[in-house]
Amino acid sequence: MPNLRMTLALAACLLAPPISAAHSARPGRAAAAVPAPPPGMGQIVFYRSLGTGKLLKCRVSEEGQVINRLPQGKYFVHPTTPGSHEYEIRSDLLRIEVKEGETRYARCMISGLGVPKLSLKDQEDFDRQVRALDLLPPWTGEKDSDD
Question: Is the pLDDT of residue 61 over 60?
């Protein structure tokens, strides 16, 4: 009998998912599929993972106009015309070239000094982060609890 118990306990350990895999994503969440951009347009997915700087803002602007705010654990998809665009968070500026039908990715990170910075990333980085992110609705210009 003791051997049977030991065998069952060992089998349970071998079949259980590793702890790191079990806690790496929110349970039951699949990776988000970013739709293709509208015809004749490109798009940029802006995202911000969970981490430091919860109270710091990542408000994304283009030509002085806020396009959306980016609290921790959120992302949004910004359709745009093909060409060169400059996006700003506070004094940090990121220039992105967007082609028709293309999706680019930009991540807001907070430095150790508390300064928000936009960085151009790839789809792989977004795919690694997205299970822990929620989609933001389009910006209406109104303040809310995340702003």
Answer: yes
